[in-house]
Amino acid sequence: MQESSDRHEPSYQPARPAETQGGHRFGIAPGWLLIGALGIILILVFGITRLTHAMQANPEASPTVARDPSPGIDGIIAENAPAHQFQVGDCLADFTSPLDPATIVTCTTPHGAQLIGVKTLDDVPYPGDPRVTSKAEAACRAIRLDPGSALEGNWNYAFSRPSAGTWDAGDRSVACFLSLEEGTTTASLLPSSSA
């Protein structure tokens, strides 16, 4: 009788080279990682560029609206006029801010704001946002108003002012507005020779 043996003689097998995963450490080829990183960088550059352009005032990009020299009974001179088209003395309906479009109307038409003047700040190096803001406010408050105009209600000064970027480009102008918190008026706030 032959004994069955549970022992098997090992057979010889040649050594195999060890598999390395250095090129696929995260399961993604390095080329795809590079392409992904470049894509993210391009998206960030595009986003920053768009944000920068949106934050810079570019009045030439706004369309011009025709002004009616002889407005009808509605008193509308120009509807949805861009801010760069406002002129000193313009009375404004639908006014929200110095940089937003508004409807220019005759001053005898109900309105809530008026462009009372444009002032020029000192031609000095950019003094910083707080100083420009205080200079702009002081310039607007110095504008002479019609003492006969009834300033009933709560009026606020609103003004546009140069930013650091527009200052470097030579902008020193401040557009000064007076606006009602609520309600409307049917009179100009400026002396008749200014309006």
List descriptors:
single chain, 195 residues, alpha+beta, 6-stranded antiparallel beta sheet, 23% helix
Protein described:
This protein has 195 residues and is α+β, with helices and mostly antiparallel strands. Helices cover 23% and strands 18% of the residues. The chain has three helices and six strands. It has helices at 30-55, 129-141, 164-168; strands at residues 76-81, 91-93, 102-105, 113-120, 155-160, 173-180. It is elongated, with a radius of gyration of 35 Å. The model has no long low-confidence stretch (mean pLDDT 80).
Strand content: 15-25%
Main beta-sheet strand count, sense and barrel state: 6 strands, antiparallel
The general outline is: elongated
The ordered string of helix (H) and strand (E) elements is HEEEEHEHE
Number of helices: 3
Low-confidence stretches are: none
Mean pLDDT, nearest integer? 80
Structural class: alpha+beta
Helix content: 10-25%
Total beta-strand segments: 6
| Radius of gyration using CA atoms only | 35 Å
Summarize the structure.
This protein has 195 residues and is of the alpha+beta class. 23% of the residues lie in helices and 18% in strands. It is elongated and about 120 Å long.
Please specify the SSE layout and strand pairing.
Blueprint lengths: L29 H26 L20 E6 L9 E3 L8 E4 L7 E8 L8 H13 L13 E6 L3 H5 L4 E8 L15
